[in-house]
Amino acid sequence: MRQLLVVGNWKMNGSRASINSLLDGLLSGPAVAGTEVAVCPTYVHLPQVLALCAASAMTVGAQDCSHMQSGAYTGEVAPGMLAELGCRWVILGHSERRQYHGESDALVAAKVAVAIEAGLQPIVCVGETREQREAGEAQRVVSAQLKGALQGQASLNALVVAYEPVWAIGTGLTATPEQAQEMHECIRACLESIDGADAQATRLLYGGSVKADNAAQLFAQPDIDGALVGGAALQAADFKAIIAAAAA
Ligand code: PGA
Questions:
Q1: How many of the other CB atoms lie within 10 Å of CB of 210?
Q2: Are residues 124 and 150 in contact, defined by beta-carbon separation less than 8 angstroms?
Q3: Mean pLDDT of 227-242
Q4: For 134-160, what is the mean pLDDT?
Q5: What residues form DSSP beta bridges with 205?
Q6: Is the CB of 230 inside a 6 Å radius of any atom of ligand 1?
Q7: Which pLDDT tens digit goes with each residue over 77-121?
Q8: What is the distance between the alpha carbons of residues 203 and 162, in angstroms, rounded to a whole number?
Q9: Is pTM, for the whole model, over 0.90?
Q10: Does residue 192 have an active-site annotation?
Q11: Known catalytic residue: 67?
């Protein structure tokens, strides 16, 4: 039985003040039993968020990390530094990194390797563009991204995969529960073929315009084990409603 996991990807948003009030809202009231919850702020907000979450069940992750453990890589942050701070997760291969920073599957694979070595749990993002879906290429593209990032990795038992169709991110368009389930089934089948991956134990999150009103239907699908939430994670009430849908 896979425990549901709901992760907030705050992207490049927030100030010290807004994060104080967001976490105030998120941590007030009883924690929802049975669902794991995590938030991923920017690097600079990690110490603040880790301190505020320390006494709660909410865990914390980063949105990216370097592909190296140390050295002359100006502007980069090593996964070991994130682990030392207290981060549990790191989002890798998000489509915005692939699109705006030219990240390739090979670079994502290098990041996955060093993140695991540092003791972080990678949340590896995959997803097709609208053109690729319309051309009937969605499953081929996603399987190739997955294999590119994971093949040859030493240990994948802490892995989480997030399926985020690029056309659904921040657009208000969500994959239907059936479309998402179909792809999650394909991802699980692909994981079966990758050495070191435990396909049945790996949690597969859906991401792309997840909201309170579509979350329950998505979570009802047998291969959807939670969500990676962008926009709706920035408002405490919206994010809590998604967490509640996971627990329902
Ligand atoms: P969204 O973003 O929920 O705003 O679509 C999801 C993501 O990019 O992780």
A1: 30
A2: yes
A3: 97
A4: 95
A5: 162
A6: yes
A7: 999 999 999 999 999 999 999 999 999 999 999 999 999 999 999
A8: 8
A9: yes
A10: no
A11: no
